[in-house]
């Protein structure tokens, strides 16, 4: 990508510049910006990192059918190897969420990329189970931070009108990365070896310079930290890029009243206004991702070890489920602005519970049953899993948005650890018990969402979360 795609001079703020702009004016100027090619280009740059975040996270599912027999791994060892990467992601989400509130969204994303990209190379050099365990944990530290901070950044530069579609079409890149991991794993692992997947996963390291040089910091974040001159100058550059892209003058900004800047506080997550939101969104994260990762990471290995299918067929079945999940994610991206957040999450979680219940009732005795009904559950879980990246940033004010999203994604990581571990531990008691457990969790989350979630469709961030 050439350097003139997002010319850095457009966004170079002068720290010495004085400005009479207020945080409310910054927000109102963002809200008047039509979504244009500038937004798409920024979304593409950030999206490359998100693509490889997903690719690296799911690479383990593609290499385990080879490593499990080669290193003679037990079911518990496989489950732990999957789960330990998510432990790193949990810690990384919390740490980088805290860091993003202090050094900015863009620099925090760059540090995440440096961490998971370099550790992907280390994973390719792993010589045994223990070494891969260590490298995957450290890699997870970077993987856990990038996606939530990127979601916050994309939400903060996007106006309320059409935000759901725009943000989720960006988040769809994560699902593309998941499918790509399946497609490339199906081809690379049998031909070039399992190490090739990890080496390919280090590709985003080349993105770091471009990201720091050409992607502007979030004006909302700058304004929330009292850096109004920088926010004004950065946003002026974005406005100029938007006028150039559209060929039209910008509409006048309509400034709404806003409260005086407040210091971040845990009350922003657990106070009277936000406690219900926090609990609801945590249920969505846990309920959708225990299915998403529990099924997504284990299916190829289940086909191989429980049903004794050939390696290529096991990977192909896993790829089919990934592709069906991608369809669910795409449907969510295209329709959630019409259906609404609350209805979508309730229906998606309930749909996942229904398919998992069918698997429990029929005993999951054939690989075809697991493929059909497991893919159905994965379809709905994936649609909820992508949608919650849109919904969570909408629920918190700018001053703690990164912390709020990163703390919520900690439940994603807990679910990601619990899901594979449940499969590895309970598989001896039959697959039906595994699917029943997942289904009950998804059903509980659906009830909580349907009862307590608030609707944020079409509302300005500062209006939803003062």
UniProtKB/TrEMBL annotation:
<feature type="transmembrane region" description="Helical">
    <location>
        <begin position="274"/>
        <end position="295"/>
    </location>
</feature>
<feature type="transmembrane region" description="Helical">
    <location>
        <begin position="42"/>
        <end position="64"/>
    </location>
</feature>
<feature type="transmembrane region" description="Helical">
    <location>
        <begin position="435"/>
        <end position="454"/>
    </location>
</feature>
<feature type="transmembrane region" description="Helical">
    <location>
        <begin position="194"/>
        <end position="212"/>
    </location>
</feature>
<feature type="transmembrane region" description="Helical">
    <location>
        <begin position="370"/>
        <end position="391"/>
    </location>
</feature>
<dbReference type="InterPro" id="IPR020846">
    <property type="entry name" value="MFS_dom"/>
</dbReference>
<keyword id="KW-0472">Membrane</keyword>
<keyword id="KW-1133">Transmembrane helix</keyword>
<dbReference type="InterPro" id="IPR005829">
    <property type="entry name" value="Sugar_transporter_CS"/>
</dbReference>
<feature type="transmembrane region" description="Helical">
    <location>
        <begin position="343"/>
        <end position="364"/>
    </location>
</feature>
<feature type="transmembrane region" description="Helical">
    <location>
        <begin position="315"/>
        <end position="336"/>
    </location>
</feature>
<keyword id="KW-0812">Transmembrane</keyword>
<dbReference type="GO" id="GO:0016020">
    <property type="term" value="C:membrane"/>
</dbReference>
<keyword id="KW-0813">Transport</keyword>
<dbReference type="InterPro" id="IPR005828">
    <property type="entry name" value="MFS_sugar_transport-like"/>
</dbReference>
<protein>
    <recommendedName>
        <fullName>Major facilitator superfamily (MFS) profile domain-containing protein</fullName>
    </recommendedName>
</protein>
<dbReference type="Pfam" id="PF00083">
    <property type="entry name" value="Sugar_tr"/>
</dbReference>
<feature type="transmembrane region" description="Helical">
    <location>
        <begin position="133"/>
        <end position="154"/>
    </location>
</feature>
<dbReference type="GO" id="GO:0022857">
    <property type="term" value="F:transmembrane transporter activity"/>
</dbReference>
<feature type="domain" description="Major facilitator superfamily (MFS) profile">
    <location>
        <begin position="42"/>
        <end position="457"/>
    </location>
</feature>
<feature type="transmembrane region" description="Helical">
    <location>
        <begin position="166"/>
        <end position="188"/>
    </location>
</feature>
<dbReference type="InterPro" id="IPR036259">
    <property type="entry name" value="MFS_trans_sf"/>
</dbReference>
<feature type="transmembrane region" description="Helical">
    <location>
        <begin position="76"/>
        <end position="96"/>
    </location>
</feature>
<feature type="transmembrane region" description="Helical">
    <location>
        <begin position="108"/>
        <end position="127"/>
    </location>
</feature>
<comment type="similarity">
    <text>Belongs to the major facilitator superfamily. Sugar transporter (TC 2.A.1.1) family.</text>
</comment>
């Amino acid at each position: 990508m050439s350097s003139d795609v997002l010319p850095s001079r457009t966004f170079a703020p002068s720290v010495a510049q004085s400005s009479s702009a207020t945080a409310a004016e910054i927000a109102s100027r963002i809200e008047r910006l039509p979504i244009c090619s500038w937004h798409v280009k920024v979304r593409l740059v950030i999206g490359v990192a998100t693509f490889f975040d997903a690719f690296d996270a799911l690479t383990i599912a593609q290499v385990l059918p080879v490593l499990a027999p080669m290193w003679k791994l037990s079911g518990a060892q496989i489950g732990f190897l999957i789960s330990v990467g998510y432990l790193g992601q949990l810690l990384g989400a919390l740490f980088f969420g805290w860091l993003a509130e202090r050094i900015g969204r863009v620099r925090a994303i760059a540090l995440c990329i440096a961490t998971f990209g370099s550790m992907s190379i280390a994973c390719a050099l792993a010589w045994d189970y223990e070494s891969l365990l260590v490298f995957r944990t450290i890699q997870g530290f970077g993987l856990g931070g990038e996606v939530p901070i990127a979601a916050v950044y994309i939400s903060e530069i996007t106006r309320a009108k059409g935000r759901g579609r725009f943000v989720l079409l960006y988040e769809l890149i994560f699902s593309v990365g998941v499918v790509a991991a399946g497609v490339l794993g199906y081809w690379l692992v049998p031909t070039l070896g399992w190490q090739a997947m990890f080496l390919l996963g280090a590709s985003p390291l080349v993105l770091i310079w471009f990201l720091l040089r050409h992607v502007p910091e979030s004006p909302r974040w700058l304004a929330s930290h009292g850096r109004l001159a920088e926010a004004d100058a950065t946003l002026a550059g974005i406005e100029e890029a938007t006028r150039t892209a559209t060929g039209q003058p910008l509409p006048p900004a309509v400034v709404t009243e806003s409260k005086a800047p407040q210091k971040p506080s845990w009350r922003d997550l657990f106070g009277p206004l936000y406690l219900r939101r926090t609990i609801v969104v945590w249920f969505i994260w846990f309920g959708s991702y225990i299915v998403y990762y529990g099924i997504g990471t284990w299916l190829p290995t289940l086909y191989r070890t429980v049903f004794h299918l050939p390696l290529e067929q096991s990977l192909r079945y896993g790829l089919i489920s990934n592709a069906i999940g991608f369809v669910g994610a795409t449907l969510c991206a295209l329709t959630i602005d019409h259906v609404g957040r609350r209805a979508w999450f309730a229906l998606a979680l309930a749909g996942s519970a229904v398919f998992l219940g069918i698997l429990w009732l029929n005993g999951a005795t054939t690989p075809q049953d697991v493929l059909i009904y497991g893919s159905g559950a994965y379809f709905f879980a994936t649609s909820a899993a992508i949608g919650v990246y849109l919904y969570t940033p909408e629920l918190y004010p700018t001053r703690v948005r990164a912390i709020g999203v990163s703390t919520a994604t900690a439940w994603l990581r807990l679910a990601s650890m619990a899901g594979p571990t449940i499969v590895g531990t309970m598989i001896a008691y039959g697959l039906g018990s595994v699917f029943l457990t997942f289904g009950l969790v998804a059903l509980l989350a659906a009830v909580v969402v349907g009862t307590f979630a608030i609707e944020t469709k079409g509302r300005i961030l500062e209006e939803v979360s003062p």
